Amino acid sequence: MTVTPCAFRNRDGHFLRGLFFDPPQPHRAAGVGLIYLPGIVLGYTAVHRLACEVLGWGARAGVPGYVFDHAGIGYSEGATLAGTHEALAYHVNSGGLVPDTLEAMRHFRSERAVERILFVGHCAGALTASYAAGEDPGVAGMVLLSPPPLRSAGPDGSAAPMPAEAATQRLRLYREKLLSGRAWGRLASGRTDYRTLVRAIRARLPRASRRGANLPFNERLIEGIRAVSRRGQVRIIAGDHDERVRELAEMVRCVEGPRVSSAVLPDTSHGFVTDESMRLLSNEIDGFLRAVGGRDRTG
Amino acid sequence: MTEEVLLLAPPLEEHARTLRALVGLGAALGLRGARVEHWPPPLERLDRTEDLAFSRLDGSIAAVADRFASGQPALVGLRFGGYLALRAVMERRASRAVLWEPVTDPRQFLREIVRVAIANQLTTYGGNVRFNAEALLANARRDGYLLVDGYQLSAASLDDLEKAPDITPEHADAFRGALSFVFWRNKRGCERWQERGFDAVFLPGVRLAWDSIRYVDADPAALIGHTAERLQR
Description:
By secondary structure, chain A is α/β, with parallel strands linked by helices. Chain A folds into 2 domains: 2-154 and 216-291, Rossmann fold, CATH 3.40.50; 164-210. Chain A contains 10 helices and 8 strands. In chain A, a hairpin with a 5-residue loop joins β1 and β2. Chain B starts with a strand and ends with a helix. In chain B, the strands form 2 sheets. In chain B, strands 2-1-4-5-8-9 form a 6-stranded parallel β-sheet, sandwiched between helices. Chain B has 8 helices and 9 strands.
């Protein structure tokens, strides 16, 4: 496998930097390429830790790969969005990264012998993958890692419902801190995030309207999944301790179809941070590449 | 304006959370006529291995510094990057440094890393901690790395961080004229350096954090302005 820095200018003239992951020559699977779309809400920088692993697995299986920073993200040019984490999340959830993604797909196709594209997207990157796949019929399959299944909150995050697992985990932490003098000190001095505390409690209150189809799912995400499933495979993967795992299970039930499948990995968080999580994920990606015919048998 | 500037980023997940601020600083300094390089170089440190052994770090920084005509650019370092810059000045490998919220005690930094590894277990194992700090470090020495935020921090790093000296204002006194400190979170740390006569400024309005996604000011104008002004002196 070789990793080569690359770049292209987007429609606004910004230089978008990225990396190509190329398999050894004799083992290349014809016409298929893998694009990894990272989660990016950790401070305007794409987190490439997972990208390098996933694209490395792909390249070793004979599939060329590509990861890039969108405009204003990481090392790419472009104005950094002003505002908060919520504002950036809102921008991404609203499809703000789709135009660059469509251009990057064209760049990948022009630089490598790739026609059919497979997406692997993590978190917000899974949303962008799904949105872009809805607009480009050349997307032949996708793996969505920990996609946020619910509609986005506003740019200030004010209307965001807290996922049930997230609320459970936070309330567990609050319970652990009941005997902590420092925690009570923070509460008394106003340094505790009261809004999060209230949201966590509210999320655990029983409300029938939160069940199943009544959840405010992200319809554009679902449309993208359905569009790709009409022409290829969609695999949705999350950890059993992902904050949104329950809502995601409900969404999977809503989009169920012959070519949409899902997996919940044991002892795994949103970020796939343990070696065991990575091993399970590696098996998943390998199985996906075999299912979509992207894996070179000799690789 | 100092014409040559090398920006030293922090390692591990802190790199991802703060990188864009350093990219913003680099662009701003570039517009003011400086030649700027990043360490680690863009798109180089992407995989999930991390090695903070000082012999490797010093060699890697020197390789990037050699790209400048002078071979001794001014340094701007954030967090552990600040420690590396401080160390470079004190070992006379650099003549000028601006330090953003620098780590000064590597042993304390290692304790913070271990705390993050414990917090990772809370989210991975549904609120449970399977390995305490001692067990994590023992496992790391057995496996050759400590797993933190998904990154594999080499066991050699643990040894070096354990042994590296805490740098105090007293230790750095002889280099007072070469060092500037910018803080926005650690007020007490800022005062410590100010009390000893160092150039240190506290900017409470900067909203840039490495340990919370709530503070993602990727374009901290005040931070950039104060840094550029100090590099110009």
